[in-house]
Design goal:
This protein is 46% helix and 12% strand. The chain has 205 residues and is an alpha/beta fold.
Length: 205
């Protein structure tokens, strides 16, 4: 891959307590990816930065994009956003993001990233899952956002789309007794391993 600096940005699934962690990686999938790459080739371990912030939606990424992405000049950027844009619209007193606003905001941050660095390698992660009830209403609401990520990945020539929505759904179908999430949204340690494996398999590090 040749990337010397990898930056992961997103919401709580990326955050995972990274500000309380000495290495600022958190305890989730970013940590697992770091450790896997360190074990595979310790002499060429890239710098890995975690810029996840719990509760973030696409609009929040837009507001902090200059500071948390462009100013840090990554070689490879991994974006994992979308859960809260749907979920918050289903919670009384909170506000989600319409699909049109989501696409507009996502396109804005990607355009700004490539304006700053035309050689940037881009990885987009599908929003994972919203298993909020037996009818999986939230999960169905998420599907247009998953599709939008694929469309943007094609538009901006991403090197990979990490297929998290399908990966989680297939894993639960294969064994629903495994705790993949803590609450239908936030992954367990097993869920974070699933994300990390999917990311590594998609990016081909």
């Amino acid at each position: 891959m040749g990337a010397k600096k990898l930056l992961f940005i997103g919401d709580s699934i990326t955050d995972c307590g990274r500000r309380e962690d000495e290495q600022q990686l958190g305890s989730g999938y970013v940590r697992i990816i770091h450790d896997e790459l360190a074990v595979r080739d310790p002499a060429h371990l890239p710098t890995i930065l975690n810029r996840g912030i719990s509760g973030n939606k696409i609009g929040d990424l837009q507001k902090r994009w200059q500071r948390d992405v462009i100013d840090l000049k990554p070689d490879l950027l991994s974006v994992f956003i979308g859960i809260n844009d749907v979920w918050h619209g289903m919670v009384p007193g909170r506000t989600g993001t319409s699909i049109d606003a989501f696409i507009e905001g996502y396109r804005d941050i990607l355009q700004r990233a490539f304006t700053a660095s035309s050689k940037l390698k881009l990885v987009l992660c599908e929003p994972s899952v919203l298993w909020l009830d037996e009818a999986d209403v939230g999960n169905d609401e998420l599907k247009p956002y998953v599709k939008a990520v694929h469309q943007l990945a094609e538009e901006f020539k991403a090197i990979a789309v990490v297929p998290l929505h399908g990966t989680f759904n297939r894993a639960r179908q294969a064994n629903p007794d495994i705790a993949w999430t803590t609450d239908g949204v936030h992954p367990t340690s097993t869920g974070h391993m699933l994300i990390a494996r999917a990311w590594l398999n998609s990016v081909k590090f």
